[in-house]
Amino acid sequence: MTTTRPAVASDAELDHWRTVAERVAATLGEDALERDRRGDDPTVELDLLRESGLVDLLHPAEFGGGGGHWQSALLAVRILSRTDASVAQVLAYHYINSSNIGFAAPEADRADWYRRTTADHWLWGDSVNPVDPDLLLTPADGGFRLNGRKRFSTGASSGDVVLAAARIEGGDRDGETVFVVLDHDRAGIHYLGDWDALGQRLSASGSVDFVDVAVDPADILGSLGDGPFQNLITPGIQLAFGNIYLGIAEGALEQGLEIARARKNSWFLSGADLYRNDPFVQRVVGEFSSGIAAVEALADRAARRFDETVSLGDAVTAEQRGHIEIEIAKLKVVSTDLGVEVANRIFEITGSSSAKASVGLDLFWRNVRTHTLHDPVDYKKLEVGAWELNGELQPLSLYT
Length: 400
Fold this sequence. Notes:
By secondary structure, the chain is of the alpha+beta class. It folds into three domains: 11-123, Acyl-CoA dehydrogenase/oxidase, N-terminal domain (Butyryl-Coa Dehydrogenase, subunit A, domain 1), CATH 1.10.540; 126-223, Butyryl-CoA Dehydrogenase, subunit A, domain 2, CATH 2.40.110.10; 230-390, Butyryl-CoA Dehydrogenase, subunit A, domain 3, CATH 1.20.140.10. It contains twelve helices and eight strands. GO terms for molecular function: 3-methylbutanoyl-CoA dehydrogenase activity; flavin adenine dinucleotide binding.
């Protein structure tokens, strides 16, 4: 039996996880650029997430977790994105992946999944990418064999377990699509290490091959159903994206301000003694700071409303699920625009010397430009417009 808890996070809870995340972000920021250039899988960095408690933040306290809310988890993702958006992405996907215990697992199985997850502080990677052909599960030896390839498997190569979506072919469950949870070193799983994007280089998002992987019935977490509650997973991950983009914008502005404040001269036509006193520099900073404040407010509101919706459990209606999807689509639109704009134009207040590779100011743009291509933001604009004009909601999917 689970204990009753408030539907939304308290100020004390948010303050606690803010402090934890800021401490972790400061550590990650010490060598983020150097690690990005190496492009290694983030194994050491994930140990930092485990030790801090961030990995277990969302899991129920009665099963050894942090007992936190989505608003706290997404605030942590945002804060980490200020210094290392790659690791923040892995953490965000872990929250989404492991939350399928609550969204997809049969109620009788959830306690066991939570206890196993928290006992060893599992980091959940994924191999779910819906635009790839389905992985196939075929009945064999009282269980199944899993075969296929998935690209963009974030966190899979460096996490403790891999959440994979696969379609059963044959047997009593023919045609059913299920989530399976497999330990990282399961025989037949091959991590290809082919992630070579210009940004999010440490997100461990390479392809995974599954070759005759033995899957026990106990490895099946649950089915991918069409109920509104189970399909809250999509607005959840889009909400995480919005916080990643917002955090990148915050981090870019923070580093830009440090550079601008440290400059000892000014543009010769400005009439100002220092760059920080140039009215054009101040104008850009004012524009960015105001935009960030507005998107922060929307992100916090959306996260709080998401917690309220999740707290309804199976009582969530299609209309309620649709409303939170629209709220989060709005965040996706403005956070994308803000993140790309700030990371691109921050150089306007820092000058040509800030374009040196050693400064690393490009890291923010490379990260946000890469991840904002995950799914077309124009379709999120259409979702919002169709709702506002005609009251139309999009069909349930892993993207809408």
